Amino acid sequence: MTAEAFSRLLGAHRSIRQFQDKAIDPALVDRVLVEALQGSSSSGNLNMVSVIKTLEAARRQRLYELHFEQPMVLQAPLVLTFCADTHRTRQWLAQRNARLGFADLISWHVASFDAIILAQTTALALESHGLGICYMGTTLHSMRAIAEFLECPDHCLPVTSLVVGWPAEAPVQRD
Q1: What is the predicted pLDDT for the residue at 100?
Q2: For 167, which DSSP code?
Q3: At what angle do helices 3-12 and 105-128 cross, to 10 degrees?
Q4: φ and ψ of 142, to 5 deg
């Protein structure tokens, strides 16, 4: 991608809150997530992040409730929940008989930042395919309840979420 094309992509970003009733190809989502993970920076290349895809309407209904009943959660065909996840790193350290660590505030920050970096790369990649996204700031407010609903293990906590779908609106660019 040229610098000019990337600048156009950045300039075209809008938070989309209204979506068409149109499915997203699961293969496209999987490809974007793999490419975003491969193309995102990660502290120490640890990739302390997991992504949970929620497609089913009934499960999105519960996420709608947990995200303060924002209608876009029901309207978008996909919710991606980006989680700080220390499991792989702790496994890697244990296999090497290294000091386990990664159960403190610093490791939480490292994992959270990895999740946010991946979320932003994913957002740009999805937008480059014409999809619309909107970040869900309510993820942090409902972190524990979302983690319980998504059955996240103790080492995995939601940091942010994206609703994803084909835009049904074209809002003006924000200031």
Answers
A1: 65
A2: B
A3: 100
A4: -115, 25
